Amino acid sequence: MTIHSPAQRPIPLPAGVDAETAAAVTALYTEGVTARKAAFSAEWADELREDIEVALAEAQSRPNGAVGRGPKRYYVEMHPEQMRGWLELVDHPWVRSVCEATLGPDYQIIELGFDVPGPGAKKQPWHRDFPLPDETRDTGRLTSLAFNATAVDTDEDMGPFEIAQTTQFDLPDGFEHEMFPPKDAYSRYEGLAVRKFPKRGDLSARSALTIHRGTENHSEKSRPVLVLGVDAPGAGNAEHHDMAVTRGFYDSLPQRVRDHLVCPVVEVLTPITQKHSIEGLMMGEA
User: Fold this and answer.
1) Which CATH number covers residue 114?
2) Which keywords does this chain's UniProt record carry (predicted)?
C-alpha cells in the first residue's frame, strides 16, 4: 500500500479566511476530520432524532427504502423537507465557511441521509465512502465533504464512530473496489484510530476518503447520525443521490442557500429508492 502523507501536501487556504475556518480546513487536510462543538442546541438534535425515526419507519415500510450497512445497521436518504432543521444546518456560518474555503464558492449540496447503528450492530470493515478521485490523487485537493450531526449523546457502548486520521490521501493499492483496504493493513489503521463521542448539537466535517468504520453497538440504544454531503463542482457524487425539493420549499429559501442546491425542484416529492449502497458493508465484520 502506498501512503501519501498529508504532511507532504500543501494546504490550499483561500486568502483572507478567518482563523476558525483556517483551522478547520487545516484539520481536514491533515487529520482528515474536524468538528464544531455545540453548533446547535440539544433541542435541535432532539427534533432531528424524531425526524430520523419517522423517516426510517417510512423507508423500512417499502422495498429498497433503507439499505443495509451491516447487521442491524441502516442507511437512508431523505429529502430536506423531511428534516425540520435542514435550513439551520446548511445555513450555519461554520458549515458555509468550511464548504466555501475547502470546496470553493460554488460548492454543491448533494446529499442528505442518516446512518442508524441499532442494538447489536457489528463492527464494520475499515473503508472510505467512495474511491479516491483522480483530482485528489493528482493535485491533492479535496473535492467533497461529509458533515455529521449526532441525534443522541454518544456513549462508549453505543458503537462509536472510529476514524483513522491522516489516511484521506492513502492510495488504494490492494483495496477491494478501491474502498476497502486489505486486512494486512488493519494494524496501521488501528494505530491511527480515534473514537468519537459527540454530544447532541455537535457537528463534524470529514473527508469521506479518510478511512473509518462504525464499531460494535453493545448497548440497547440506537445511535442515529445525520449525513450532509457537499461537493466541489464537477466532483460527480450528485448522480448517486436522489434528493429533491418542492417548488414552494425552494422559493422559501434564502438565495444564498438556493445557490448551492443542484437537486431537482419538483411539484411533489417521491420516496427515495436507495442508490448509494456499499456492497462491502452489507455483511459487516460479524
Assistant:
1) 2.60.120.620
2) Dioxygenase, Oxidoreductase
